[in-house]
Design a protein that fits this description.
Blueprint (H helix, E strand, L loop, with lengths): L5 E5 L10 H9 L2 E4 L7 H6 L5 E2 L1 H6 L3 H17 L14 E5 L8 H13 L3 E3 L5 H9 L7 E5 L13 E5 L4 H12 L7 E6 L8 E6 L13 E5 L5 H4 L3 H12 L5 H5 L6 H16 L3 H24 L5 H14 L2 H4 L7 H19 L18 H14 L7 H21 L2 H21 L4 H25 L9 H13 L1
Parallel strand pairs: 1-4, 1-5, 2-3, 2-4, 6-7
Antiparallel strand pairs: 7-10, 8-9, 8-10
Length: about 500
C-alpha cells in the first residue's frame, strides 16, 4: 500500500516579500494545501493567486488547549496521507500533502514535531522545507546578535527558572493579554517590576511592524497581542540581577576559595568550619522562633553558604559538586514521594509519612546500607543534642516492639526515676546523682513521644517562656529603681506570677 507524502513548508515571518521562491513554487504546484492558520500576512498572497487551501483555525475553537489542537492537526494530516497516493519520490509528487506553517517549520511548531515522530511510525514520507523564521526578523528589527548569548522561550511554558539575565531572551507564542500576564508574573520573579522590556508586533512585516518598550508591570495592560507578537528581554550585566541566581552564588564561592580569593576562605577545611555550620543552624532556628522574616532571609542564606563551602571543597578535589548535591536531593524527593510523582496514593499526612518511610527503607536496601548495620539503633548522628538523640533512640526501639502500649506505665516510670534521683541525692554520691538525673530525663522524653510532642521543641518553648518572664522581673526592677541585690525571692516571685498572668 502506498501513502501520500507530506511536505511541510514555512511561510516566513510574515512579509510576503520574504517568502522564498522555492516555497512559492511548491504552493503553486500543490493540489492539496493545508495551513495551520490563515491569520498570517502571506495568506493574502495565496488568496490573490487563487490557490485553494484548508485552514485548521476551526480546531482552535473546538479544543480547550493548544496541545489538543496540535494533536488534532497532526492526526488529520496523517489521516489524509494514509488514504493513499502514488509511490513516494524524492522530488515530492503533485499529490503530496502540502502543510504550510508560519515562520520556519522547525521553530516553535509543535505540529511539526508530532508529525516527525508519527510519520516514521506510520511509514509516511515526510519532507521539511525551510522558511524565514520570526527569529530572523527579530534579530534584524531588535538589533540583537545571538552570538552574545540567546534564549528562545515559549510563553505557555515559561518558568522563572528558565530566565537567565545575561542572555538575550525572546519569548514567543504571546497570543493575548492572558498569556502576557503569565509572562509578566514569571519575569517579576527574576527582574524588578519596572525593568524595561520590548513588545514586538509583526516584526519584519512592512507597514505592520510595531516595537514598544514598556516596564514589565505593563505587559498585560492595554496591549494588543496577536499571532505575530513576541516579548524581548534585553540581556543585562547588572550585578543585582545576577545576584538572584544560584549560578552566581556558586561562582562567588569558587572565587573566594581560589588562589586569587580570600586568604581566610582558602585555608578552611571541613573540620575548621564544622562548628560554623552548627552555629548558623541555631541562628536560623532563633529567627524562626522569633517569627522574624528578615532574620530568616539572612540566616537561611548563612546556612546555604555552609553547604556551598563544604561542597566547593569537595569539588576542588574532584569528589562532587554542589550540583551533584542538588541532583541527589531531587532524586531522593521524587523517589520518596511516590504519592506525588508516582502511582501510589496518600489520603492524609499519616499515609504520606508511611510512604516516605517505606521508600526510605527501600532506598537503603538498594544501597546495601541496612546490611552494613549491626544494630537497630544505627543511623543516628552521634553529634545530635542529647535530648533529640534520646527521642530518636526510643523511636527506633519502638519500631521493633520495645515499647509500652500506653501512657500510664510511662508516667509511672517517671515517678520511679524521680524517686531514685531523690535517693541518690540523699546518698550524696555525685556520680550516681548525675546518672539518675539522666534516667529521669530519658523517661520524660519517652512521655513526650507518647503525647506526640517533640521534646526539643517543648523545652525550647519553655526556655523562651522562662526568658520572657525573667526579663519582666528585670524590667520591674528597673522601673522601681532597684537591683537584684535590693530585692528578694518573695518580691521576684510576685513579679514572676504577674508575668504569667500577662
Amino acid at each position: 500500500m502506498t501513502y501520500s507524502p507530506i511536505v511541510i513548508v514555512g511561510l516566513g515571518s510574515g512579509d510576503p516579500d520574504q517568502l522564498t521562491l522555492g516555497i512559492w513554487r511548491r504552493l503553486q504546484a500543490a493540489k492539496r494545501v493545508f495551513v495551520r492558520t490563515e491569520h498570517h500576512p502571506v495568506m493574502a498572497l495565496l488568496q490573490e493567486h487563487n490557490i485553494p487551501y484548508t485552514s485548521f483555525d476551526s480546531l482552535y475553537e473546538q479544543h480547550d488547549s493548544f496541545p489538543e489542537v496540535y494533536e488534532a492537526i497532526a492526526a488529520r494530516l496523517l489521516q489524509e496521507a494514509l488514504q493513499g497516493g502514488s509511490e513516494p519520490v524524492a522530488s515530492a509528487p503533485a499529490d503530496a500533502i502540502l502543510y504550510a506553517v508560519p515562520g520556519h517549520p522547525m521553530v516553535a511548531e509543535r505540529t511539526v514535531q508530532l508529525l516527525r515522530e508519527r510519520c516514521v511510525e506510520e511509514g509516511v514520507e515526510l519532507t521539511v522545507l525551510g522558511g524565514e523564521s520570526f527569529l530572523d526578523a527579530a534579530f534584524a528589527s531588535l538589533g540583537l546578535d545571538p552570538i552574545e548569548g540567546f534564549s528562545l522561550l515559549d510563553a505557555a511554558e515559561l518558568k522563572a527558572s528558565l530566565l537567565q539575565p545575561e542572555l538575550h531572551t525572546v519569548i514567543g507564542q504571546v497570543y493575548d493579554a492572558f498569556t502576557a500576564s503569565d509572562v509578566k508574573l514569571a519575569l517579576m520573579e527574576r527582574y524588578p517590576e519596572d525593568y524595561e522590556v520590548v513588545i514586538g508586533h509583526a516584526l519584519g512585516v512592512q507597514g505592520q511592524e510595531r516595537i514598544i518598550s514598556v516596564p514589565i508591570y505593563e505587559l498585560d495592560r492595554n496591549q494588543e497581542y496577536g499571532n505575530l507578537s513576541i516579548i524581548y528581554v534585553p540581556r543585562s550585566e547588572d550585578p543585582a540581577l545576577r545576584n538572584r541566581t544560584f549560578e552566581r552564588l556558586h561562582e562567588i564561592v569558587a572565587i573566594l576559595r581560589s588562589p586569587e580569593g580570600c586568604p581566610w576562605d582558602r585555608e578552611q577545611t571541613h573540620q575548621s568550619i564544622r562548628k560554623n555550620f552548627i552555629e548558623e543552624l541555631y541562628e536560623a532556628l532563633e529567627a524562626i522562633d522569633n517569627d522574624d522574616p528578615d532574620g530568616m532571609q539572612e540566616e537561611f542564606g548563612d546556612v546555604i553558604l555552609q553547604v556551598m563551602l563544604h561542597s566547593q571543597m569537595e569539588e576542588e578535589v574532584g569528589a562532587f559538586s554542589v550540583y551533584d548535591v542538588i541532583e541527589t536531593l531531587n532524586e531522593k524527593l521524587i523517589f520518596r514521594h511516590p504519592h506525588v510523582f508516582g502511582e501510589t496514593g496518600a489520603q492524609n499526612a499519616d499515609e504520606a509519612l508511611a510512604n516516605w518511610e517505606g521508600m526510605k527503607a527501600e532506598e537503603k536496601r538498594r544501597k546495601g546500607t541496612d546490611a552494613a548495620r549491626v544494630s537497630q539503633l544505627d543511623g543516628i548522628p552521634p553529634d545530635l543534642p542529647a535530648l533529640m538523640k534520646a527521642y530518636k533512640l526510643q523511636k527506633k526501639a519502638a519500631k521493633v516492639g520495645f515499647d509500652w502500649d500506653e501512657l500510664g506505665p510511662v508516667l509511672s516510670k517517671i515517678e520511679e526515676e524521680l524517686l531514685e534521683l531523690r535517693e541518690a541525692i540523699s546518698s550524696g554520691d555525685g556520680e550516681k546523682q548525675a546518672g539518675e538525673l539522666g534516667d529521669l530525663l530519658f523517661a520524660v522524653v519517652n512521655a513526650s513521644r507518647f503525647i506526640h510532642a517533640d521534646p526539643e521543641e517543648a523545652l525550647s518553648r519553655t526556655n523562651r517562656k522562662f526568658k520572657s518572664r525573667f526579663q519582666y522581673i528585670e524590667e520591674q526592677l528597673r522601673i522601681n529603681g532597684k537591683t537584684f541585690d535590693q530585692t528578694d525571692l518573695l518580691e521576684m516571685d510576685r513579679w514572676w506570677e504577674e508575668a504569667k498572668r500577662l
